[in-house]
Write a structure and sequence with these properties.
242 residues
Length: 242
């Protein structure tokens, strides 16, 4: 009976992870072009994507690699851009059966993305670790393969085509920021404010000499902290700050 339930959970997870993976592949291909421009080979791109599951986080990683940033700058930027997954993992852990071993909670936490988290939260009853593993692995293989394929394409295609494909990464970010900006005035203001601050940091004498990694760290922490303090998200039920 246990083996049959395990089989059902794995097949269910793989089925739900497949459409997510197909979407990931297209985004990761664009990141692969960026990774190619940063000097990575397909294997490096595959490993990078397998260990870093956020498009914004990986783009930041690739940008810092291209800029020859220090290791500590890369580590801090990745921690900041992926910090939301700590909260998602904590929330999802409450959906596991109380007798679920810690190792399963840890491994599932490693595989969290926005979409995989959505799948887990949407499950009725206790979340099954095999279901989460299957969904993550299917989606992640597409994500990592997309990056590797993008790098391989960058090695084969003419330089002008690679340059044109590089523009796709900006389309990805537009797709990320426009929907929430249309629904939330705060986000709509913070997006252009972030652009303006980034430009100011590039020309102001006090900040222009800083490395790209340090600029990203300062701006990310300052803007997000300011937004959280001025515009806290309210708990819909209790009315308090979330």
């Amino acid at each position: 009976m246990k083996s049959e339930q395990l089989r059902r959970d794995v097949l269910h997870g793989a089925r739900d992870g497949l459409p997510i993976g197909l979407g990931y592949f297209a985004v990761a291909f664009s990141l692969g072009i960026t990774a190619h421009n940063a000097g990575l080979v397909p294997l490096q791109g595959f490993i990078s994507s397998f260990l870093n599951h956020a498009s914004a986080g990986e783009y930041a990683l690739l940008s810092l690699i291209a800029a020859n940033a220090a290791y500590w700058e890369v580590a801090v930027v990745i921690c900041i851009t992926n910090a939301r997954y700590l909260l998602m993992s904590a929330a999802l852990s409450q959906r596991f059966s109380p007798d679920t071993p810690f190792i399963h909670r840890l491994l599932v936490g490693f595989g969290i993305t926005d979409e995989i988290f959505g799948l887990g939260i949407a499950q009725k009853g206790w979340v099954s670790p095999p279901y989460m593993y299957a969904a993550f692995l299917v989606a992640e293989l597409f994500w990592s393969s997309g990056t590797a394929t993008g790098i391989a394409a960058g090695n084969i295609l003419p330089a002008n085509v690679v340059s044109a494909l590089s523009v796709a990464i900006y389309g990805m970010f537009l797709a990320i920021i426009i929907p929430p900006a249309r629904e939330n005035r705060v986000v709509a203001v913070l997006v252009p404010l972030s652009f303006a601050c980034s430009f100011a940091f590039s020309i102001l004498p006090l900040f222009s000499t800083l490395s790209d990694g340090m600029k990203t760290i300062i701006l990310t922490v300052a803007i997000s902290a300011g937004a959280a303090a001025l515009f806290p998200v309210r708990d819909e039920e209790g009315g308090g700050a979330a």
